[in-house]
Amino acid sequence: MNNSPRAVLLGPLLKSVSRSFYLTLRILPAGMRDPIGLAYLLARAADTIADTSLISPQRRLELLLSLRAQVNGAADDGALARIAGEVAGQQAQPDERALLESLSAALAILPQLDVQDQAAVRDIVTTLSTGMEFDLRTFPDETSGEIVALQEFSELDRYTYLVAGCVGEFWTKMTYAHKPGTLKAAPETMLALGVRFGKALQMTNVLRDCARDLRIGRCYLPEVMLARHGLTPHALLQPESSARARPVLFELLRTSLALFQDAVAYTLAIPPGAVRLRLACLWPIMIGLDTLVLLARNDAWLDPASISKVRRNDVYRIIAASLPMVASNGMLRAWTARRIRAVEAALSAATRP
């Protein structure tokens, strides 16, 4: 058994903090796992800093920026100790605490990667942390009782790029670097599809988590969209808000569905023989589409007690169903088309007089 710090960080610790994403990581081709796994660990640490509400938003921002600087090679011997000292002890989950206390070891892995991977990991962590910075600068303290909304859809679109669209971009770069010749389409085509793939997943997260986000002062539903239906961010906390805000939900579900169609196109652009890469893309697509169906059918989607979450057994069902189909373009097209039609049918049923 390899008990080196690298093996522990990119093995047991990564598994414990990445939850369902670990399934995707493990199915990746070997050469892609370490840079993507390391990027995940560093981004997860940054996210934990940004989300630790027992620390003031301003201090979280300072610590987040200091971690970003460390990732990008800044010399500050005390930065990681400050993060461990101030943030790790606030974590209820021991795995999150262990990650924050292991940042020095995680950063030591970075120069062990090849130069291209080092640059890609730094870029993705920088971009993701910029999305976290946006949250901390835009929204109020979680305990303030205030709610701030994004103003325009363009802000939401930019946000989904910063926290997820960029991951599709990174993933695509890793594929070109580690599996040369696998992707036949032009890089600019695949990079654009990869961005839309990531945005699809984040739009789904935004809609699924809207009820909880509202209660910590964050409204990702653009204010101009709410205003068209006579709504304000605070009004979304009212019991009847789920029904009143459904037109906003449906508009964003249709936007998400278009993004998922490009995610399917991305997956089908991967050769049938690249089974691991296809599965790594297919699973989040199918889970995401199932989530959209649940959202479209959820009359209480803004109730935090009624979150539209795909059950663990359904995730296992998706994994099992994918295995005999993954190498067939025809079967994948049919399967994804059925789920897309299910979303469309749920939207049609919900809007029928």
From TrEMBL:
Record protein name field: Squalene/phytoene synthase
Organism phylogeny: Bacteria, Pseudomonadati, Pseudomonadota, Betaproteobacteria, Burkholderiales
A single GO molecular function term of this UniProt record: squalene synthase [NAD(P)H] activity
Signal peptide location: none
InterPro entries documented for this protein: Isoprenoid_synthase_dom_sf, Squ/phyt_synthse, Trans_IPPS_euk-type
Domain of life: Bacteria
GO biological process terms held by the UniProt record: farnesyl diphosphate metabolic process
The organism of origin for this protein: Caballeronia pedi
